Amino acid sequence: MSSLSDRIEYYLKNLLTETEAKNIIKIQRNKVAEKFNCVPSQINYVLKTRFNMASGYVIESQRGGGGYVKIIKIDHDSKLKILKLMLNKIGDSISQRDANNIIQRLYEEDIMTKREKELLETMLHRQNLNLNLPDRDILRANMLGSALQVLAKAEETNKEG
């Protein structure tokens, strides 16, 4: 059985694909919370962890009586642009959660295969990086950055050929 966060994420992503204005939805936290029988802060958690820039989304919030949250899925016109954006997001260190968000985004954009996704997630998992923080996050950033550079180089080669 999937977690509540997974179900909320699935619901919101379905709304994004089903709306007329593809890739943009407006929701009210309270209404979504009612639908899932949870508190609005659970919706905030899902928005913060699963609909962030690294995952390819922008969140706009309007507070007040008629307040809403707008979720915008960012479309990039090329896989190479997405790879470069993700490379810039990595920085000098990266948490496992943020690394997995980047990997998931690249998988959803068909930039990497399911096999590549699973290999990277396994390689970058804290259990396999036998270091303490912050060294573990630094190593993870270096490894993920190297993998994305290989994908970017392959994408450039595909563009040329």
Automatic annotation (TrEMBL):
Protein family membership: Belongs to the CtsR family.
Lineage: Bacteria, Bacillati, Bacillota, Clostridia, Halanaerobiales
Keywords: DNA-binding, Repressor, Transcription, Transcription regulation
GO MF annotations in UniProt: DNA binding
GO biological process, one term: regulation of DNA-templated transcription
Gene3D superfamilies the UniProt entry points to: Transcriptional regulator CtsR, C-terminal domain, Transcriptional regulator CtsR, winged HTH domain
Species of provenance: Acetohalobium arabaticum (strain ATCC 49924 / DSM 5501 / Z-7288)
Official protein name in the record: Transcriptional regulator CtsR
CtsR N-terminal HTH domain segment(s): 3-74
Location of the CtsR C-terminal dimerization domain: 80-149
Family annotation (InterPro entries): CtsR, CtsR_C, CtsR_C_sf, CtsR_N, CtsR_N_sf
Signal peptide stretch: none
Entry annotated with the keyword Transcription regulation: yes
Top-rank taxon, per record: Bacteria
